[in-house]
Design a protein that fits this description.
Elements: H1 3-16, E1 26-28, E2 35-36, E3 42-43, E4 50-59, E5 72-83, E6 87-89, E7 96-98, H2 107-125, H3 131-138, E8 140-153, E9 160-171, H4 186-194, E10 198-200, E11 214-216, H5 218-229, H6 237-245, H7 249-254
Parallel strand pairs: 1-4
Antiparallel strand pairs: 2-3, 4-5, 5-9, 6-7, 8-9, 10-11
Helix pairs in contact: 1-3, 3-4
Length: about 280
């Protein structure tokens, strides 16, 4: 899994939270959010309508030498689901309605909800005022393909409707280990934005003015630290260059990228004098 795939997926998750009819119930790679039982029935354990975001298949062609940094065409899946269990009884009208939506819990309403949510996903991920969506867009060069599908089921006696959007994008390459990130790089922007995510402080004391009400999200903090560790390293420029293209050390020596034997490894070759020597005088 590339760092770019991880960051782009998470950026999409954070961009969508609170921006659609499912509210904050936007899941990151929730395995089993939609599942197929042994007898072929569709099921879900979610307690209310949801979106689950996945980074799926990817294909990279024509990589330079043996490079591992290119991501190529990458699929992002947006799965949406709603069941008859995602309902609530309206005391005023005497009707059973979808949780948080207020429309009758009929089969037609299920499909209507999912159609609207699918539209909201596209609107949100193209919103110029949504900072997370902006970061997601910066991770790719364009939407190569958008595919939509629907399914339904009656697993365990509970009606379930689901839709899926498969978005294929040309994902930008991963930064090379040892290379310094430019602040304008989308991954650097992701790290900076992720640092602003907070959760309620369980140790908050309302009577103590020095006790913060929120703290940095510990899960996100741990994820970012692990991602940044994959980029860190006290490597020399020539080693980073070899990593970028997957070159062997011999190839680097032939291209005069690797310092000659006996020269300190941290010496950078700036210029190579390739002019022929003057002929010897008789």
């Amino acid at each position: 899994m590339s760092l770019t795939r991880i960051a782009a997926r998470l950026a999409a998750v954070y961009a969508l939270r609170g921006k659609t009819l499912v509210g904050d119930n936007v899941l990151d790679s929730q395995i089993g959010a939609l599942d197929i039982t042994a007898d072929g029935e569709l099921r879900t354990d979610e307690e209310k309508p949801f979106i689950s975001v996945y980074a799926d298949a990817a294909k990279s062609d024509d990589n330079v030498l043996r490079s591992w940094t290119d991501n190529g065409a990458t699929d992002f899946l947006f799965e949406m689901g709603v069941t008859a269990a995602h309902t609530e009884f309206n005391d005023e009208t005497g009707e059973t309605t979808l949780v948080g939506v207020g429309i009758p819990a009929t089969d037609a309403a299920f499909e209507f909800l999912l159609d609207v949510v699918a539209r909201q996903i596209g609107d949100t991920l193209s919103d110029p005022e949504n900072e997370w969506a902006e970061i997601f867009r910066k991770f790719h060069r364009g939407n190569a393909r958008i595919e939509r599908a629907r399914t339904s089921g009656d697993g365990s006696g509970i009606r379930l409707a689901a839709q899926q959007i498969r978005l294929t994008v040309d994902l930008v390459a991963d930064p090379v280990r040892g290379a310094e990130l430019n602040p304008a790089h989308p991954l650097a922007m992701f790290f900076a934005k992720a640092a602003t995510l907070t959760v309620p402080n369980p140790a908050h004391d309302p009577d103590d003015e020095n006790s913060p009400a929120t703290i940095p999200d510990p899960v996100v903090t741990a994820q970012v630290a692990l991602m940044q560790a994959q980029l860190a390293g006290s490597e020399y420029d020539w080693q980073t260059a070899l990593r970028r293209y997957g070159m062997t050390k011999t190839e680097g020596e032939n291209l005069l990228i690797v310092p000659p034997e006996g020269v300190e490894a941290d010496i950078t070759i700036i210029e190579v004098g390739a002019a022929p020597a003057a002929p010897a005088q008789p």
